[in-house]
């Protein structure tokens, strides 16, 4: 795919995101229908479902032969990386959305034959969009992203999964102690934006493809490391514990995980 076609797709997706954000903001103060999925902390609302249906409809009109992997089930059963695969998280951080009406994101990614082409993470309430891919670079609200410093763990803040720290999975307590401090934002998208902007040196959590699909593309394009928590390659259809980090922090954390 040539760069002009990628730019055309990029412009189109940004239009979907503007419209999607407007849809969410119009409904955010209405009465929500909230249901649980796998547990009482795994929520879905009517707005999650409506927003996913909106984005899926747009993708099907624009790229009818593509397959779509959506968190809320409006897409397809995707079991291979062949062809065009779009990954959609209509509201990332649903608990934050329900309880705070803040700190949540919309994420879209396009992979072609398993290779990341374009990724988008929109901080809805902050109206802040990280976008791009290997052919374009990474943009922060339309401006080229300033490359984050390659900061080691001991000199930076780290975003961690609260439950993983409580259970000390993969020596998370030690990882937190070795950093300057731990942050728990409750939204993969918000955490990944913070890593891209250099506010965090790493983010570690158990993630599904819609949680990291866009972030993997953006972070790798920006020169950051994206692997499983023990340093293995991360496939786009994986559901596993994921680490996105500066190269130095990645090395430091792998040393702790391996102890």
Automatic annotation (TrEMBL):
Keywords on record: Hydrolase, Magnesium, Membrane, Metal-binding, Transmembrane, Transmembrane helix
Question: Which superkingdom?
Answer: Bacteria
Q: Which residue spans traverse the membrane?
A: 104-122
> Could you tell me which SUPFAM superfamilies the record lists for this protein?
Carbohydrate phosphatase
Does this entry carry the keyword ATP-binding? no
- Which InterPro entries does the record associate with it? Inositol_monoP_metal-BS, Inositol_monophosphatase-like
Q: Which PANTHER family match?
A: INOSITOL MONOPHOSPHATASE, INOSITOL-1-MONOPHOSPHATASE-RELATED
The protein's name is Fructose 1,6-bisphosphatase
Source organism per entry reads Lentilactobacillus fungorum
